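User: I'm writing a tutorial on reading structure tokens. Could you give me a worked example: one chain, its sequence, then its tokens, then a sentence or two explaining what the tokens reveal?
Assistant: Sure. Here is the example chain.
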Amino acid sequence: MVQEHSVKQSLGLLEVSGLALAISCADVMAKAASITLIGLEKTHGSGWTVIKITGDVASVQSAIITGASFAERRNGLVANKVIARPAGGILAHVESDEPASVPEIIIEERERFIETPESQDESETVLVSCNLCLDPACRRQKGEPHSQCLHSGKRGEK
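And here are its predicted structure tokens:
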């Protein structure tokens, strides 16, 4: 009888200050080692975000060290932890085949800058060029003078 060899999974946690730094750290960690991103979770204090990863022990340790040093250089490191071969129930939710979903906060931020006019199909989106009024009809491009905005001088009016 041939026994199937399975590599024990490890859990890595990296807590950083800010969502943008968390996404950057997750990118650096994924490029540094063969890991699986479980997700990003916004905690309840000071804008901190926890990055959760799994993989073999060496890969997770390497990724966490890389992510922690990246965050520390940007003064955003809060905490990090590697749990090598955690107890069975800890990774039970990871064993599903579902890929990590995009955190809701990223989707909400993206929707702030993309509008869909009612006349278009819902599958099509229009990128907004003016970061002041967010009106797709405005010809002003980000970085141009505010006076070129279609709604210049109409702030606060509904």
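What the tokens reveal: The longest strand covers residues 10-17. Residues 34 and 96 are 18 Å apart (CA to CA).
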